[in-house]
Structure formats: structure tokens, C-alpha cells
Amino acid sequence: MLLLKQLEFTFERSTIDQRAGRDVDLELKTREILHSLGLARLARLVRVEWNSRLQTAAGRADFREKLISLNPRLCDYDESEIDRTLRHELAHLLAQFRAGRRRVSPHGPEWRDACCDLGIGDEVRCHNLPFLISERTRRFIYKCPSCAREFPRVRRIRRAVACLRCCRAHNGGEFNARFRLQLVTAAS
Ligand SMILES: [Zn+2]
Ligand SMILES: [Zn+2]
Description:
Elements: H1 2-12, E1 21-22, H2 24-36, H3 40-45, E2 47-50, E3 59-62, E4 67-70, H4 79-99, H5 109-117, H6 129-137, E5 140-143, E6 150-153, H7 164-170, E7 182-186
Parallel strand pairs: 2-4
Antiparallel strand pairs: 1-2, 3-4, 5-6, 5-7
Helix pairs in contact: 4-5
């Protein structure tokens, strides 16, 4: 029974080990998007990475390096949040790329145009906002008693769920109650 419960958690975050450094899959996806817009040169140059040094920012775009950095905390939310942040940052690169030497303002009209081209014409958020929005919906904060990593959840966890990272590091990847997540905050 416990094994089933632990597996559920394993699959919940199967990408956990990849959330550092360059992300080849996201790079490919970004290149495809740029190719579809006829931007082969930018497609060739763009890189996508996970960067745990980002604190409250969901992402960052470095035009000089053609580098999009994503906050690994995005993985606590769903795929659509990652996709939207990727496109938000890509819009920054795209806006500056099109403007050439002319300097564009971070969330100005050029950026807005780029958002439309990237399918997020309704984008209104600044970089930090996704987390603020999510703060309101993730009412339950769980914590691993071993590594103290936090697991924000929208709903109460009703199963035995353990910290995957600790189970892997200290227990051969098997469920161990020592690493069972504990509820620390239940906001109303
Ligand atoms: Zn932005
Ligand atoms: Zn842990």
C-alpha cells in the first residue's frame, strides 16, 4: 500500500532532477516557436536554463546572451505556468531582437506585440506575479522534515507522501515514513 502511495509522488515530479542547468527540451520547443515565426537566426542562438538563483522572479531574459532563465519553483505549479513564463521571457528577447540597436522598454509596445505573436496576447503579469497569484491558491504548505523543502499544494494531501529527493538520497528511492511530508500551514 505504501509503495503505491510513494510511486504516486515519484511520478508527480519526475523531472525533479532536470531542474538545473540547460533544458534541451524547452530549448527545442523555443526554437520551433521561433522557426514558426521565421526567426531562424534567433532560433539558432537561444538557450533555456533553470536557474535556482532566481528568487522571486519567475524568469529572466538576457538578450546579450540570448538566454532565458526559469525559476525551478515554477515546477511546483503546472506545465501551463512554465509555458507561459517561457513565452513571456521569449517575448523580451523577440522584442529586442526586432528592435535591433534601438533600446526597448521592458514591457512596452514591442514586448506586447511579441506576446501576441507568441500566443500570449493577454499577458499582463510582471515577472513576479505568477507566484503571488499562486500564493492565494496554494493553501496548504507541506514540509519535508529532513531537508525542509516546501511543497505548496492547493488541496490537502490525504495520502502518505514522502519527499522524493530524500527518499532517493537516503533510502534507495523507496518510501520511508521518516521523510513523510508534514503540514506546516493551512491558510483559510
Ligand atoms: Zn517581463
Ligand atoms: Zn526531503
